[in-house]
Amino acid sequence: MDFYETVNTRKSVRAYDSRPVDEEVLERILKAARGSPSAKNLQPWHFIVVRNQAKRTVLAEGTWAKFLRESPVVIVGCGNRKDSPHWSTVDTTIALQTLVLAATAEGLGTCWVGSFSQEKVKECLGIPKEWDVVCLISVGYERGKKDLTRTLAGGAKRKKMGDIVSYDEF
Ligand SMILES: Cc1cc2nc3c(=O)[nH]c(=O)nc-3n(C[C@H](O)[C@H](O)[C@H](O)COP(=O)(O)O)c2cc1C
Fold first, then answer.
1. Distances (CA, A) of 19 to 4, 11, 12
2. CATH number, domain at 30?
3. Is residue 170 part of a domain?
4. Could you give the dihedral angle defined by the CA atoms of residues 52, 138, 34 and 80, in that order, rounded to the nearest 10 degrees?
5. What integer best gives the mean pLDDT of the chain?
6. What pLDDT sits at residue 153?
7. Can you list the residues of the chain whose pLDDT is less than 70?
8. How many domains, in total, are found in the chain?
9. Which of 59, 87, 106, 137 is the Cys-Cys partner for 75 at CB 3.0 to 4.6 Å?
10. Ligand 1 pocket, 154 CB below 6 A?
């Protein structure tokens, strides 16, 4: 899959089948995340791979997160506020999006999930206090998927280019 095909194929997947994600595939997408840029190369991120059903059920308690019960993997992206106070969230977000695109190129479905309680997720996964939960990413094979290709026109609507891009001034 070339880069633009990957970008245009990605969409939020909220229904998963029970097929597990191979270890090698998981390792490849985590290594892709590791290769992301970070301010001063501090790499202030940590990715928790959650496969445990009971823990995924806790992660799924957010209003818009119910499907985390069925995605075989949830990646919890954490940023270290102490090591990189200004950029830990940005850096971790960049790494998570790299992981999302790598997962797409592997034929996996993903969805960003911001619907979670910082306190509950930290408690459930034993995350130390200097770390923030930046976002959760569901990972797995889409249930009922018929066609891998998806153009932006056929997916979630996007703003017009003229409304989001300008040249030489706002
Ligand atoms: C930071 C962030 C948080 C999000 N949180 C949720 C969420 O909690 N639940 C959910 O179902 N989708 C969530 N989404 C997915 C968006 O709804 C989705 O990306 C958007 O509607 C565009 O659709 P697309 O991803 O299919 O292009 C989130 C996306 C981002 C980037």
1. 27, 19, 18
2. 3.40.109.10
3. no
4. -80
5. 95
6. 46
7. 146-154
8. 1
9. 137
10. no
Whether residue 159 is contained in a domain is answered as: yes
**Percent with pLDDT over 70 in the chain:** 95
Q: What is the pLDDT of residue 151?
A: 44
**Residue 169 is assigned to a structural domain of this protein:** no
Cα-Cα end-to-end distance for the chain:
35
**Ligand 1: nearest atom to the Cα of 116:** 8
Please report whether residue 135 resides in a domain. Answer: yes
Range of the domain at 117: 3-164
CB 125 within 8 A of CB 48: yes
Residue in 90, 111, 133, 142 to alter for ligand 1 test, most ligand atoms within 8 A of Cβ: 111
Q: How far is CA 64 from the centre of its chain?
A: 15
Q: Is 156 in the pocket of ligand 1 (CB under 6 A)?
A: yes
In this predicted model, what pLDDT tens digit does every residue of 5-39 receive, in sequence order?
999 999 999 999 999 999 999 999 999 999 999 99
Residue 1: the pLDDT is 86
**Residue 112 Cβ contacting ligand 1 at under 6 Å:** yes
